[in-house]
Amino acid sequence: MNLRELLVSRLKALGVTRVVGAAPLVAADAPPELRLGHIAIDDEDLACLIADTDGRIKGGFGAALLSGGILHLSSQPAGRSPVHSVASAEELLAALALVSPTRAPSTLAIHLDLDLDEPVSDDLVAPESERAVLLCLDESISDMTIAVVVGPGVVRAGAVEGLGLFADQLGVSVFNTWGAKGVFRWDDPRHGGTIGLQALDLVLAGIDGADIVITSGLDRDELGDDLAGFTVQDVEPANLAALAAHWTRRPHVGRPPLYDALAAVTVPAYEDDSVPLTAARAALHLSGVVLDGGIVVADPGLAGFWVARAFPTGKPDTVFVPALACDGFAAAASLLSAIDGRPCLAVTDAFDPTTEAVLGLAETLSLGATVQVWGDDGGSISTAADHVELCSTQLSSPSVRIDDVPVRLDPTVLTAVAGPISAWGGVRNN
């Protein structure tokens, strides 16, 4: 085995299926076990965006091979990392061990300061993964108020079932960040609501009054330091099923004020079929695509905020809005879904230069990438039914489509309930 073969095997273990960039990592005629797909892109910023998006929407990591031998691995759109320079097989394995496909989204940059065709010693040993401590809650704390907050790491680790067992045992509602939407169905009594989007989320969720906050799989780019000052116990997602195994099962305590307060605003908006569409109604129209194994994606901003807040999720990994401000994500996700033959509806509220560049790439590759631009301009949409039909048309489009949809993006009805938008540092018209 040589270093290139070693690298490819490790990348595949991280969920990498293709490499983006000017040059491929492996030749097209390489043996099947060494092949990785390749998307040829000279623009390195665009290559990183495609790789970031690839890792986020499919699980595992996306990869971009950049000039100077920089390998960009990511599952966090707009994620950044200091460059780790590696000059030996041992250093390469140590660097790759810094990331895992079963943790919250992250980014790693590696400078490959080595000859990839150099042979690798047969006795090379990969570093052992750090072992997590198995935690169990003691019933002596059963009189304390416990809040549970989970992030996308729970989904990426395949620990949703374990989370359900834990929630059932404690009888609590679980709050998810928007990167973990769908860990419970929107109507599941264990679903406490999506948090991290607005300034008063933690207050309405009752988390500010909890004695202990149990967290798992959080993406710090979503919640940041919002839980600073709280008594927090972080738990590995794989540990959730066993965490309350010794507790006597408790009856469900009911949903928090957050859920009902937001439902009082969103439910009437779902039922409003006037045009311009309410943002909640527009998000509802998108939800049908996930029934066919598809995904809904949105750029951060007002459109992304409404999708993250109002999209009625039925299962995890079906709706994606990045944790960081990131132009072009929705278009990139549409492009990648077109390559993979996966249904995708993509939404933005600003047709920016990056989105334009991604769709230009899609045209070059003859892909049916599509984007809905929500805002004041109505395009051909004059009824709610027109939008439903547009969604269906976009899913079957063989070419690039950009469609304007008249949507009322003003968040006032929600900010009156849960305070200013806090995600992405706040968004315009907040």
Largest sheet, spatial ordering of strands = 2-1-3-4-6-5
Number of helices: 15
Helical residue percent band: 25-40%
Largest sheet: 6 strands, mixed
Strand content: 15-25%
Mean model confidence by pLDDT? 94
What are the segments in which pLDDT stays under 50 over at least 5 consecutive residues? none
Q: What integer value in Å does the Rg equal?
A: 22 Å
In angstroms, what separates the terminal alpha carbons? Answer: 55 Å
Descriptive account of the structure:
There is one protein chain. The relative contact order is 0.11. With 430 residues, this protein is an alpha/beta fold. The mean pLDDT is 94. The chain has helices spanning 3-13, 44-58, 89-96, 152-156, 160-170, 201-204, 220-223, 240-243, 257-271, 279-286, 302-310, 329-340, 353-364, 384-395, 412-418, and strands at 18-21, 37-40, 62-66, 70-74, 83-86, 107-112, 146-150, 174-177, 191-195, 212-216, 232-234, 277-278, 295-298, 319-320, 344-348, 370-375, 401-408. A six-stranded mixed β-sheet has the order 2-1-3-4-6-5. A six-stranded parallel β-sheet has the order 12-17-16-15-13-14, sandwiched between helices. α13 (353-364) links the parallel β15 (344-348) and β16 (370-375). The longest helix has 15 residues, at 44-58.
